[in-house]
Amino acid sequence: MVLAKEIPEAAAKLGAALEIASRHSSAQLTDEIRQTRARLEPWADTTYVRRLDEALQSCGVGR
After folding, report:
1. Secondary structure of the chain: what % helix, strand, coil (to 5)?
2. Which element (helix H / strand E) includes 39?
3. CA-to-CA distance for 46 and 23, rounded, in angstroms?
4. Of all residues in the chain, what percent carry a pLDDT higher than 90?
5. Is the Cβ–Cβ distance between 34 and 63 less than 8 Å?
6. Which among 4, 7, 16, 24 is positioned nearest to 55, based on CA atoms?
7. pTM for this model (two decimals)
8. Which residues of the chain have pLDDT under 50?
């Protein structure tokens, strides 16, 4: 369960994982990032998740 107050930290951690995944072609890590991002869907309209989505798109990961 994700609490609303944890959203900024969750988005930051996923962003860090995305940076690692972009340097190492790890399909498993990329898949985990997508799955974890999906759990943030209830907060998709927050600034933190929108920025994460932009980063995912720019790296070609998508959601």
Report:
1. 75, 0, 25
2. helix 27-39
3. 27
4. 44
5. yes
6. 16
7. 0.81
8. none
